[in-house]
Amino acid sequence: MPFQSKAQQRYLFAKNPKVAQEFASKTKDYKDLPEHVSPHKDPPMKIKPGSPQDKAMERRMRLTPGSPQDKAMESGTKVTPFKFNPQAAKPHKPKPDPKAPLGQGGRFEALKEKLESEPGVRDPGAVAASIGRAKYGKAKFQMLAKKGKQA
Prior knowledge:
Elements: H1 6-15, H2 17-26, H3 52-61, H4 68-75, H5 86-89, H6 106-116, H7 124-136, H8 138-150
């Protein structure tokens, strides 16, 4: 089998020299080879009008009577397709309450959310934990953290 392109020739000599030697012996003129071979395109289907295939295609392409697309086709207006909004699909997360009772985690979450907008804060959870530990002390902060995890 002769080479189909120069790219194929380079690839085969690099990856499989034995096969490349076989191809080279059957290739007549390297100057006429294209750099790359264009991808094959399937020929369009030839369907005779009125055939069962043509009728099936018409049924698939036919719009549902009374649908918005059908009405738009009749009136000549353009129908914009529905666009999926990933933000709208996310479940709503309630805002943390900064005045929640101690041990429920609302104050901690509110402080974390506030610290996220501060410049230079890489881990707002760690900063909020260090603030809480300094404010309430080690023992009380551990107790509050345990309560927060249970809630």
